[in-house]
Write a structure and sequence with these properties.
The complex is a heterodimer of chains A (196) and B (178). Chain A is an alpha/beta fold. Chain A is built from 9 helices and 8 strands. Chain A has a single domain, classed as Thiamin diphosphate (ThDP)-binding fold, Pyr/PP domains (Rossmann fold, 3-Layer(aba) Sandwich), CATH 3.40.50.970. In chain A, 41% of the residues lie in helices and 17% in strands. Chain A has a 6-stranded parallel sheet with strand order 2-1-3-4-8-7, with helices on both faces. A two-stranded antiparallel ribbon of chain A has the order 5-6. In chain A, helix 1 crosses helix 2 and helix 5 crosses helix 6. Chain A is globular and about 50 Å long. In chain B, strand 1, helix 2 and strand 2 form a beta-alpha-beta unit. Classes of the chains: A alpha/beta (196), B alpha/beta (178).
């Protein structure tokens, strides 16, 4: 089984992204996104741990014509396991969840997460009713995950095992109101973006 | 007006307000919200999302706002405690949030385990930056919800309308919802 470099994974998934919307969970996933993108269609989180997948669900429901990619880590996903059941019940065809799983809480001193001790997030997603959930095992599969972002394949959950690496912290803007407004303007136009 | 009739009519009124304002719903069920939830779930024009825990709904509503849709959260007072950290998300993003909360742990509560959170609900919400309205009579539900929706979505505030236990009716220990 391959263990991937997380930034190579994120760069590969966002290649030729087109109108793809991307929500990134707090910590390393947000830094990864910022390392290769500063698109108005990016929504990197700086807090709200456990909420990335649900932000993605809300966005996917509101924008059914676009695909929403949620990129997050294993620690962040573990805090919102119930949201996997909620999402599977809604089954939004335009939502893709990708968990970059290094088995560690990388921002707090590299304590082990439950995925390092036996929890399998793809199995959890399957158990919650995801029609398609898997762990990427080979490098060649990564391109298929990317292609699925742009194909009408329906709701998907993917785990990619990644190495722990000390990487430069490329930080996205910290102003949540700015990030939100930036995405709304890109999606809705300036006038509508100012409404509630 | 009997209590059952009053409950039916406020629930119908709130459902109509949600429709008139293009508001979807997300909820963890509560007995006091039974009629309203049924109306929303049975309405093909309203997206109704069942949550496993209330904070999911805070994140969902913020995501929906990013994409240009409105979502109201329905929950029991005990669920407010689950939302605390997630309430920072709409606050820091200047995103609207509308919560409709049925109260437990106050008027004639029979279950002592409901009391601590019920008594803490309003102060916790206020500390988290949420504007709190409280409703004690059925006739005030719809005007308060209407005002709250305006404040949330027109002025981009975080707003909670608390429906008091006196209004909802004190739960008897007859099984079913808790």
């Amino acid at each position: 089984m391959s263990v991937f470099h997380r930034r190579e994974v994120v760069r590969a998934l966002l290649r030729e992204r087109g109108e793809l919307l991307c929500v990134a969970g707090l910590g390393a996933s947000a830094w990864d996104l910022a390392s290769c993108s500063s698109d108005p269609l990016d929504f990197p989180l700086w807090g709200a741990m456990g909420g990335a997948a649900m932000v993605g669900l809300g966005l996917a429901i509101a924008q059914p014509e676009r695909t929403v990619l949620v990129l997050t880590g294993d620690g962040e996903m573990l805090m919102g396991l119930g949201s996997l059941a909620t999402i599977a019940a809604q089954r939004p065809a335009n939502l893709r969840l990708v968990v970059l799983d290094n088995g560690l809480y990388g921002e707090t001193g590299c304590q082990r997460t439950h995925t390092a001790i036996g929890a399998d997030l793809a199995e959890v997603a399957r158990g919650c009713g995801f029609p398609h959930a898997r762990m990427v095992k080979q490098e060649a599969e990564l391109e298929a995950v990317r292609a699925d972002l742009h194909a009408p394949v329906g709701l998907r959950f993917t785990v990619v095992k990644v190495l722990y690496e000390e990487l430069p912290r490329t930080m996205p803007p910290r102003d949540g109101a700015y990030l939100a407004q930036r995405m709304r303007e890109a999606l809705l136009g300036v006038e509508k973006a100012l409404e509630g | 007006m009997s209590e059952a009739v009053a409950r039916v009519s406020w629930a119908d009124g709130v459902h109509a307000l949600f429709k008139a304002n293009d508001v979807d719903v997300a909820f963890v069920p509560d007995g006091g919200l039974k009629r309203l939830i049924e109306l929303c779930v049975d309405d093909p024009e309203t997206r109704a999302v069942t949550l496993t825990t209330e904070e999911e709904g805070v994140a969902l509503a913020t995501g929906a706002f990013l994409g240009g849709r409105r979502t109201a959260l329905l929950m029991q007072s005990s669920g407010v405690g689950n939302c605390i950290n997630m309430l920072s998300l709409p606050r820091i993003c200047n995103a609207p949030l509308f919560m409709l909360v049925t109260m437990r742990g106050e008027w004639g509560e029979f279950n002592p385990w409901q009391v601590p959170m019920g008594q803490s609900t309003a102060p916790i919400l206020q500390t988290a930056g949420v504007i709190v309205y409280r409703v004690d009579s059925a006739r005030d539900v719809c005007p308060t919800v209407e005002s709250g929706l305006k404040l949330a979505f027109n002025s981009r505030c975080r707003v909670a309308v608390l429906l008091s236990q006196r209004l909802i009716g004190t739960k008897e220990f007859a099984g079913g919802d808790s």
